[in-house]
């Protein structure tokens, strides 16, 4: 049985580039950039006024001039108004391009205007004040964004500003989520006393939706021929097959045989972890990867977050995520030689330290508990006694804040 | 001029409940629950087998029996197979309901099966092992989820499991984002040397998209009559009007007058903060709230995250978010008597402490910088000298991890 680190390594050796596609910039939120974005002109593109007021030549002010004849009023977007004498000024608005003959803005609050003359009331005026100078943020041709950048709202704004209306982003893999097991009934149905409602597939679908993937859902019965038939179709039509359940040693777990018959190579089966020990991972010759997770809700949830999402991010060429560490808030014993994924609630101290309070449920079947927690804390298999105050890595599944 | 705290208080005094609506559970990701969800039956609903193997009566094993005649094989979802003698067993699969006459599961790895007889090889068998007992997670009628819960993937799974296919969630406010300013051109257009491309509206739209809101976009020219006409229509058709730009003291900033003419009451104008000092907030008699942010990209970004999102969360009845604190990683001086929203990159130490490294841009016009940072650190207005090692609150705008 391999370790968590080995499993992670094997999964990341089997990432794949699904190419790129063009989307409109305002529909690209959450996607991964597949091109380099450069500044099409200086940022700012001109000496940009940052306060409404008057534009003067500082040397006039320095020489004692306090009253300036208003030559005109310049809105943002308008051509600069030219003035030809030092005792003139331009009334000018935030966002406007500074005329060449002037160099300093005095805001309305610091002047008085009467009969076309603006008089400066402020004693303290600095040369060049209230201007955002051309090219101080970026020069024309400067790199703004690199391939692999996740498209956030701030990135969208930057992309809009340089006119990249059509954007090259990484193509997302086509994913199908297969649930199997005759004990499962539909959500709207009433299960018999020995059945349960289908839920893992919807949970995985929601995790993928957060990553921008609209996954298909397929339910297949515990029948070897039907399973093989469906898997064969999925291997032709999807890039990734995610499964929950049907991979343990039971008589009715026909999936491993079906996968073998369809020439999906097993890369590993079983990982030294709880939950999720029976996790199976493989790949078909045609490149389709198969993540077969144990059917326990918590195991499926953990494996999707811990293994599938990093695989996806690496396949998309995203920058690697920075690890998050938290302080364990209570003592804990875990005997088995397995990595243990502890469900925790997170909270920051006033000192900026992240505290992880375990909310131990009743094992991998207990998903009522999952809804109340924020993250898994990864407790290493080599240790059995975990003490309050020790620090371990956590994997968030809900956003902080 | 009011403080950040006062602005926040006034905004949170003007939240509004937009009621509830029914959505399908698998389209409810990110929405806020508007009903109480209880367990429709015990969780688990029956004594659930957690390993594939045989089900025996422990007292037989205790009395020395090691070989058991296999009465039948029971799949998950099937009716329990009844046995009538202690030397019988049932082959049973993970997820199956435990028959009444047996109490212990021995997994396949620990038995040998020959000619219909299962022989136990393991010496160490615990009574009741490999079972997840009925009702140990939750009892029928127990509270699972309360109104105000954000619907995460784990919540979706829980909701599916109790059969709540149609879900009552909080209705989202209808939001319009208005951009104004004759200096703005469309993203696909080539601006004149004194124009810039529209970008703030798309940035705000993306922030709202993350919150599940599909906001409308409207662009209006700097013309008093046109502005008033459009605002009047928006006041009839939306719950929230978000604006960027057009609210400072300039000659061409017609929006404050138009709002006044339409009887939108100013609740405040100007906050002791940088960026975003000219932030204007008001409300119409009919309940429509108006957030008018300064036109600087960084100011609009900060105000949307810092003021609009918390207003939205409170309006939806979401649980209050837990504050995040981080350690400032370098010294900094900020003289004005304003709260300063410093752009920072975040990273955890191996000790679980969150470090904030400033990536100071060129002021509120510099949004190239925004794309490289994770959060705003809120530096209080009463302090001017900030030292490395001090801890302040941060407001994330990108997800950690």
Automatic annotation (TrEMBL), chains A, B:
The keyword Magnesium applies. It catalyses: adenylyl-molybdopterin + molybdate = Mo-molybdopterin + AMP + H(+). InterPro entries: MoaB/Mog-like_dom_sf (IPR036425), MoaB/Mog_dom (IPR001453), MoCF_biosynth_CS (IPR008284), MoeA-like (IPR038987), MoeA_C_domain_IV (IPR005111), MoeA_C_domain_IV_sf (IPR036688), MoeA_linker/N (IPR005110), MoeA_linker/N_sf (IPR036135). Pathway: Cofactor biosynthesis; molybdopterin biosynthesis. SMART domains: MoCF_biosynth (SM00852). It is an enzyme of class 2 (transferase). The keyword Metal-binding applies. Belongs to the MoeA family. Catalyzes the insertion of molybdate into adenylated molybdopterin with the concomitant release of AMP. PANTHER family: GEPHYRIN, MOLYBDOPTERIN BIOSYNTHESIS PROTEIN. NCBIfam families: molyb_syn (TIGR00177). This is Molybdopterin molybdenumtransferase. It comes from Mucilaginibacter antarcticus. The lineage of its organism: Bacteria, Pseudomonadati, Bacteroidota, Sphingobacteriia, Sphingobacteriales.
């Amino acid at each position: 049985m391999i370790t968590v680190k080995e499993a992670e390594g094997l999964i990341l050796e089997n990432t794949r580039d699904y190419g790129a596609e063009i989307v409109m910039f305002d529909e690209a939120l959450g996607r991964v950039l597949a091109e380099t974005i450069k500044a099409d002109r200086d940022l700012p593109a001109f000496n940009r006024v940052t306060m409404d007021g008057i534009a003067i030549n500082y040397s006039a002010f320095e020489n004692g001039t306090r009253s300036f004849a208003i030559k005109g009023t310049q809105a943002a977007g308008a051509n600069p108004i030219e003035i030809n004498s030092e005792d003139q000024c331009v009334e000018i608005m935030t966002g406007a391009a500074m005329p060449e003959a002037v160099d300093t803005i005095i805001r309305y609050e610091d002047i008085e205007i009467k009969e076309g003359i603006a008089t400066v009331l402020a004693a303290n005026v600095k040369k060049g004040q209230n201007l955002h100078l051309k090219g101080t943020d970026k020069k024309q041709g400067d790199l703004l964004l690199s391939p692999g950048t996740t498209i956030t709202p701030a990135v969208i704004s930057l992309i809009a500003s340089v006119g990249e209306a059509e954007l090259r982003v990484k193509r997302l893999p086509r994913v199908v989520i297969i649930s199997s097991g005759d004990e499962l009934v539909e959500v709207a149905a009433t299960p018999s006393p020995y059945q349960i409602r289908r839920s893992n597939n919807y949970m995985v679908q929601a995790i993928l939706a957060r990553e921008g993937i609209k996954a298909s859902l397929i339910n297949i019965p515990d029948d070897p021929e039907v399973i093989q038939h469906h898997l064969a179709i999925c291997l032709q039509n999807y890039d990734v097959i995610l499964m929950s359940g049907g991979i343990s040693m039971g008589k009715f777990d026909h999936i491993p045989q079906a996968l073998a018959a369809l020439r999906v190579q097993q890369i590993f089966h079983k990982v030294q972890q709880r939950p999720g020990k029976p996790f199976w991972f493989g790949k078909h010759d045609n490149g389709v990867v198969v993540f077969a997770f144990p059917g326990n809700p918590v195991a499926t949830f953990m494996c999707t977050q811990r293994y599938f999402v990093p695989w996806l991010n690496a396949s998309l060429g995203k920058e690697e995520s920075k690890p998050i560490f938290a302080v364990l808030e209570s003592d804990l014993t875990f005997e088995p030689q397995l990595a243990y994924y502890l469900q925790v609630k997170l909270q920051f101290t006033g000192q900026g330290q992240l505290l992880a309070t375990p909310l131990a449920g009743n094992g991998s079947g207990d998903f009522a508990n999952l809804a109340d927690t924020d993250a898994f804390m990864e407790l290493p298999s080599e240790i059995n006694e975990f003490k309050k105050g020790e620090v371990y890595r956590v994997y968030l599944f809900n956003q902080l804040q």
